[in-house]
Design goal:
Elements lengths: L1 E6 L5 H8 L5 E7 L3 H10 L6 E3 L2 H8 L3 E4 L6 H10 L3 E5 L6 H14 L3 E4 L6 H11 L6 E9 L14 H5 L1 H11 L6 E7 L11 E7 L5 E7 L12 E6 L2 E5 L5 E11 L2 E7 L12 H15 L7 H20 L3 E2 L6
Parallel strand pairs: 1-2, 1-4, 2-3, 4-5, 5-6, 7-10
Antiparallel strand pairs: 7-11, 8-9, 8-15, 9-10, 11-12, 12-13, 13-14
Helix pairs in contact: 4-5, 5-10, 8-10
Length: about 350
């Protein structure tokens, strides 16, 4: 039985606890929140009568001696939680983003390495079935090597609360999902970015609700991102809308179930090469999917087998670097080199 303490009992914790109660061999040994009543409410909601409830993570870890910590706190508190978890010899699975700054991200990864603990991030868009299918399809070479990756993200949610007041709200709060999916699907290594943010007249956010960015993903791959948190009408999927252009064809994904590809055929219609539809194979049984559930299972498997989870911190920091590179570019108005993060 793997014992876990969850810290941060806000709205997002429900996704974690919903997944956790579906996993045999996992027990929530404690709940921690600065608001004790909120932690008690979660304990009652999920029938966790035996869980230790507290406002101090160190105290609850000392009492319960768990195997792992689930970190669902606000990003600004992430470094403190991570260092506490590793000090108590716990493995750590954290909500995205990995950290609130590049320096804090590197400090967390260094602490995990020093402690010899498994550290991973809930970057759950990788566990979407069509993201897996696209990666396998592109790896097969059916349309050649990808060269141009384009993603649109246009949704208009009225969150209320902190998001509507935060700086760089789209890039910092949401874009990492799209950035990580792009990097994963085409096996990209981010090298540079140019980004512009703006606040449309129709926006209800304080700053950064709309952004456009161009990334160099290495090996001749360019990724363009266009997004908005305040675009009413014709909204995209939460996964975005994608076009991937490759050497011998293209792939389209609407972010839902619409996934199709075409490959160059023989002959031309006038000055345009002919193309023909090509099947994107179904999900491979070996592909791990399932959002929070899939990631938690992958995290547990890594602990049990002594391997590394797919969304390990040493890999996820590369996607986080894309976010902070885009923010720096938007603030300075110049193209920004993205430092290569070493595992």
């Amino acid at each position: 039985m793997m014992k876990v303490v969850l810290v941060g009992c806000g709205a997002m914790s429900k996704h974690w606890l919903d997944a956790a109660r579906r996993i045999d061999g996992l027990a929530i040994a404690g709940l921690v929140d600065l608001d004790a009543e909120r932690a008690w409410a979660r304990a009652r909601e999920y029938d966790l009568g035996s869980a230790v409830i507290g406002t101090s993570l160190d105290a609850v870890l000392a009492e319960t001696k768990p195997d792992a910590v689930f970190d669902v706190v606000v990003p600004a508190a992430r470094r403190e939680v991570a260092l506490s978890a590793f000090a108590h010899r716990c493995h750590l699975l954290t909500e995205k983003p990995l950290a609130d700054s590049p320096d804090n991200a590197r400090a967390i990864i260094a602490a995990a390495r020093q402690a010899g603990r498994v550290h991973a991030v809930v970057q759950n868009r990788r566990y979407v079935a069509n993201v897996r299918r696209i990666r396998r399809f592109l790896d097969s070479g059916a349309i050649g090597q990808p060269t141009s990756i384009h993603a649109d993200f246009f949704i208009a949610p009225h969150f209320g609360g902190f998001r509507e007041e935060m700086a760089h709200v789209l890039l910092l709060d949401m874009a990492i999902h799209t950035f990580d999916a792009a990097r994963y699907m085409v096996a990209g290594e981010p090298a540079s970015v140019y980004c512009q943010e703006w606040e449309p007249a129709n926006s209800w956010y304080r700053q950064g609700s709309s952004a456009s960015a161009v990334f160099d993903l290495g090996s001749g791959k360019v990724f363009t991102y266009a997004g908005s948190w305040c675009a009413d009408g014709f909204r995209t999927s939460w996964e975005g809308s994608w076009r991937i252009v490759a050497e011998r064809g293209s792939l389209l994904w609407d972010g839902h179930d619409g996934l199709k590809a075409e490959v160059v055929a023989s002959g031309r219609d006038g000055i345009i090469d002919k193309t023909q539809a090509i099947e994107v194979p179904a999900l491979d049984p070996a592909d791990r999917v399932g959002g929070h559930l899939g990631i938690i299972q992958d995290f547990m498997r890594a602990i049990e087998t002594g391997t590394e989870p797919e969304t390990r911190g040493t890999d996820n920091i590369k996607s986080l670097a894309m976010v902070f590179g885009a923010i720096e570019s938007a603030e300075t108005g110049r193209r920004v080199a993205i430092a290569k993060e070493t595992p």
